Amino acid sequence: MLAIIGGTGFGEYAGLAAITPAVIATPYGNAYLQHGLLHQVPLVFLPRHGQPASFPPHRVNYRANIAALAQLGVSQILAITAVGSVDPQLPAGAFVMPDQVIDYTYGRAQTFFDDEIHHIDFTYPYTQALRAELAAALATLQCQDQSMVFRPRGVYGCTQGPRLETAAEISRMARDGCTIVGMTAMPEATLAREKGLEYAGLSVVVNAGAGINDQAVDLDGITAVMVEGMARVRQALSIFLERRDQAGGPV
Ligand code: HPA
Questions:
Q1: Residues 199, 193: contact at Cβ < 8 Å?
Q2: Residue 84 CA, ligand 1 centroid: distance in Å
Q3: In the chain, how long is the greatest CA-to-CA distance?
Q4: Which CATH number applies to 2-247?
């Protein structure tokens, strides 16, 4: 089964049918999610920040969320995030599917293996086949709207938050090779890998990273970009499922 994790600006799934909210108890606490149908396909929608949004990025219960999805038999996760740009070429409204992560977070419960020695390979934090499938859906959407900026690769720098970064931090992240900056890819991606779940990310750039414009980040200006961006994300997810439907399974 497929799960979609919604981020900032995507706390409700307009278009999801037969929604049944559920509270799933896990050894790490409760996860709050919804069962629903999208294009007749049963899936799970999990608004990462809660509904209404109340868990800031550093307090999201990532372990409960991923453990709940695993308990429900989810095998694939599409993780949606709102991000800032680190690459100055990326305009607000651009879409990036990260293929790499640099983790700048600290103090988050970041593993299911606290009481035993267990290492996972994490060379490629996102699942290649699932990424390719999602990228194909985005490319189809881009054909319909040439004004859309879409990058099928990028490095997601995950900061601790909840404050935004300083200009010097964004410069450092650019030197590190980051493309975008957000606060929620980690430890979510790690935990998905620890549970053996396929995981792909789709990020919407909602603002220029700190210092890129020589201006303070315009938090009020983010909302409009976010609303439009998340509407496009829903279109991309519909195309993703339509392609699967036509192919009779994952393509
Ligand atoms: N920094 C970190 N996280 C974010 C940003 C940002 O500029 N914009 C949206 N999420």
A1: yes
A2: 4
A3: 51
A4: 3.40.50.1580
Q: How far apart are CA 34 and CA 55, in angstroms?
A: 17
Query: How far does residue 116's CA lie from ligand 1's centre (Å)?
Result: 34
Atom 10 (ligand 1) nearest CA? 83
Cα–Cα distance for residue pair 219/223, rounded to 1 Å: 8
Is 236's C-beta closer than 6 angstroms to any atom of ligand 1? no
Rounded distance, CA 172 to CA 170, Å?
5
Domain positions in the chain are 2-247
Q: Is 202 in the pocket of ligand 1 (CB under 6 A)?
A: no
| pLDDT greater than 80 at residue 250 | no
User: DSSP letter at 169?
Assistant: H
- CB atoms under 10 Å from CB of 37, counted, come to 14
> For 90, which DSSP code?
P
117 CA distance to ligand 1 middle (Å): 33
CB-count exposure of residue 12 (10 Å: 0-12, 13-18, 19+)? middle
Ligand 1 centroid distance, CA of 41 (Å): 32
The protein residue with its alpha carbon nearest to ligand 1, atom 2, reads 182
**Collapsed DSSP state (helix, strand, coil) of residue 166:** coil
> Which of 6-10, 204-208, 238-242 bottoms out in mean pLDDT, i.e. has the lowest?
6-10
Quick one: which of 38, 70, 64, 11 has its CA closest to 199? 70
Predicted TM-score (pTM) of the model is 0.97
Give, in order, the Cα–Cα distances in Å from 230 to each of 37, 80, 107, 196: 18, 9, 30, 28
| Residue nearest atom 7 of ligand 1, based on CA coordinates | 84
